[in-house]
Amino acid sequence: MQARKKYVLLGLCTCCWLLLYYWGGLQERLLGLLTHRRGEVVRPWPNWLDRDLLPGYADQAELQNAGGPGDSPRQRRQSWAGIYKDSRCRMDTCFDFARCQGQSSFRVYIYPPEKGERVSESYRKILTSVVESRYFTSDPREACLFVLGIDTLDRDQLSTQFVPNMDERIRGYPLWNDGRNHVIFNLYSGTWPNYTEDLGFNVGQAILAKASLNTEHFRPGFDISIPLFSKEHPQKGGERGWLVRNTVPPRRKYLLMFKGKRYLTGIGSDTRNALHHIHNGKDIVSLTTCRHGKDWEKHKDARCDHDNQEYERFDYQELLHNSTFCLVPRGRRLGSFRFLESLQAACIPVLLSNGWELPFSDVIQWNQAVIEGDERLLLQVPSTVRAVGTDRVLALRQRTQMLWEAYFSSVDKIVLTTLEIIKDRVNSHISRNKFMWNALPGGLLVLPEYSTHLAHYPFYYLNLGISPGQEFTAVIHATSPLVSQSQPIMKLLQVVSKSKYCSQIIILWNSEKPPPHRSKWPPMPVPLIITDGRRKTSSRFLPNAAIETEAVLSLDEDTVLLTSEINFAFHVWQSFPERIVGYPPRSHFWDPVKKAWGYTSKWTNEYSIVLTGAAFYHRYYHHLFSHYLPSSLRALVDRTSNCEDILMNFLVSSVTHLPPIKVAQRKQYKEMPILQGTKMAPWANPEHFTQRQECVNTFASWFGYMPLVHSQFRLDPVLFKDHVSVLRKRYKDLERV
């Protein structure tokens, strides 16, 4: 009985305690709301430390008066709904796929700018990238996608680049159609003090390609988050990443760094005002300065002078080059210039920007390149980065370089990535998968029209653990009429057909005279196909449905080789299927006097080009040559009947970032007499060399950088030139003159 009374008493005590806790907590919350309404100050985050220890935090009343994050989530959603009425847009509801049908289904049209229209440098670069892309059309009837000619990058009303009356102007476009099939580029939205994502006009059903996008407002599968970039960002090419291959150790002098502005009030000030707490001046350097803006001295706090002095002690570039991790806190907006700077420097970004939809998040796996922190847990960042192992540090740094060079090093790449993502959505049945976007060489150099299977691309063989095929197709470029059975091409046919790896031979006929009948050609143990090159030099690298093998052996009609030389080069190519493997080398150099690139054919120990007059490569490069490169470069090749081999080397090196491979060859050849009726060798033309010099500079200008890579690497057969019995050598013929 007494035990029962004890349990009853214990239950009553528990109920009383719960009631007191519930009503007491409720009253405390009500009291907090009442005092908040009466204007009393509420302790800001972080509330677990004494305010005396955080003198850099702005007063909460001041922050609320300045606007910013004080708005409730409901108020922010209502504000967003008022600005973007089509917040539920998706590709299947707000995009007209009917405009994107036909043979050339994806074309982009730019509205012509109005007379006297002001366009910023950054927007001019974006428009130039679209115009120079393979998707541009000047006919709006062909267009699948439309880009405004009006500058929409800076929608801050206080900016000199702000364009007023946007609603009225875009409604004047006859094809606007409430924004359907339009893409709007934007870097800066909103203005002081809230910096909302208001663009100042109704975007309707247009796709937003926007920097500093918030995840709350991002329309998945429709909008595209782009990086914030400066007006100095290069149009093409851009600088290479700073990570040197096989850098050991992967960790640098400083573990973690940040150097930038500190905002005393307003949105974005909370995070940057707290950064000094993790600064130790040794392996963690976190520096901020108040010295920015016109009236900074009027608003400076007690810590400003000390911060400014400490700020001047360290050089930003020195920190960037020598830090393993780089803090990327939000500024007034979610995005920051620090993001791209960190990627280029191989300084692993540590993000402190809650709610930021990362650039190209639809396709890029950012967990392989960045550390995502939490603004509210800043003090945990040092222990978090210290816990990252050495192997992961190296992997993260390598991934930053891959992403920087593939998608972010130039405005061209940022714009093309945006267009390719939209194109993949439009043609979802022929699109890239996540692996293609996140593995070398990057999604821009993988054209899904060629294939959607990884095993069909040479640069994925190693990752997939597969080997290239065991046969090759020889493509012989013929420009001279067949007048004699003793011409070099006849002997070349016999030599190539004797290779046990030769699957077929294709003669690309580019002579002025029609090709001879099949009976005029010698009998072959392999199929012989004659195709019309239409007298275009670039046709030797155009896709050819007759090519059934992965390996292509490109040959000039006057090439002199032995069957054993061909077999050895093919074996080498099988180990390096993503590169050009061949015989005749050439090189490029920088001429400081002319301030231009030069071209040389001198025999030296260094080379950067292997001529395609006798070289192996993968057939995918035919597709890339025809569909990735602009028609202007192919037209240059056809107009001069020159430089197609240099252009192919540029293309392959831009994909691999590696040099071609030269293999051993006989250095002495008998001069072949020029037969009557045959063409003079192209190198005998005095303009030939000058044209090639000009081609190198033209190609480098289009790529935006010099992709060719020098090498001193040459592969010889085992026992090549060794003083041993010839009977012990597999490729004994290579040493005979």
TrEMBL record:
Biological process annotations from GO: heparan sulfate proteoglycan biosynthetic process; ossification
GO MF, any single term: metal ion binding
Pfam families xref list: Exostosin_GT47, Glyco_transf_64
Principal localisation: endoplasmic reticulum
Top-level taxon: Eukaryota
GO-annotated cellular components: endoplasmic reticulum membrane; Golgi apparatus
Keyword Iron-sulfur tagged: no
Exostosin GT47 domain segment(s): 103-387
Subcellular location: Endoplasmic reticulum membrane
Keywords linked to the UniProt accession: Disulfide bond, Endoplasmic reticulum, Glycoprotein, Glycosyltransferase, Manganese, Membrane, Metal-binding, Signal-anchor, Transferase, Transmembrane, Transmembrane helix
Membrane topology qualifier: Single-pass type II membrane protein
Reactions performed catalytically: 3-O-{[(1->4)-beta-D-GlcA-(1->4)-alpha-D-GlcNAc](n)-(1->4)-beta-D-GlcA-(1->3)-beta-D-Gal-(1->3)-beta-D-Gal-(1->4)-beta-D-Xyl}-L-seryl-[protein] + UDP-N-acetyl-alpha-D-glucosamine = 3-O-{alpha-D-GlcNAc-[(1->4)-beta-D-GlcA-(1->4)-alpha-D-GlcNAc](n)-(1->4)-beta-D-GlcA-(1->3)-beta-D-Gal-(1->3)-beta-D-Gal-(1->4)-beta-D-Xyl}-L-seryl-[protein] + UDP + H(+); 3-O-{alpha-D-GlcNAc-[(1->4)-beta-D-GlcA-(1->4)-alpha-D-GlcNAc](n)-(1->4)-beta-D-GlcA-(1->3)-beta-D-Gal-(1->3)-beta-D-Gal-(1->4)-beta-D-Xyl}-L-seryl-[protein] + UDP-alpha-D-glucuronate = 3-O-{[(1->4)-beta-D-GlcA-(1->4)-alpha-D-GlcNAc](n+1)-(1->4)-beta-D-GlcA-(1->3)-beta-D-Gal-(1->3)-beta-D-Gal-(1->4)-beta-D-Xyl}-L-seryl-[protein] + UDP + H(+)
Gene3D superfamilies per UniProt: Spore Coat Polysaccharide Biosynthesis Protein SpsA, Chain A
Transmembrane parts of this sequence: 7-24
Biochemical pathway: Protein modification; protein glycosylation
Cofactor: Mn(2+)
Database matches in InterPro entries: Exostosin (IPR004263), Exostosin_GT47 (IPR040911), GT64_dom (IPR015338), Nucleotide-diphossugar_trans (IPR029044)
Domain Glycosyl transferase: 472-720
Protein's UniProt keywords contain Transport: no
Family: Belongs to the glycosyltransferase 47 family.
Function: Glycosyltransferase required for the biosynthesis of heparan-sulfate.
Protein name in the entry: Exostosin-1c
Organism: Cyprinus carpio (Common carp)
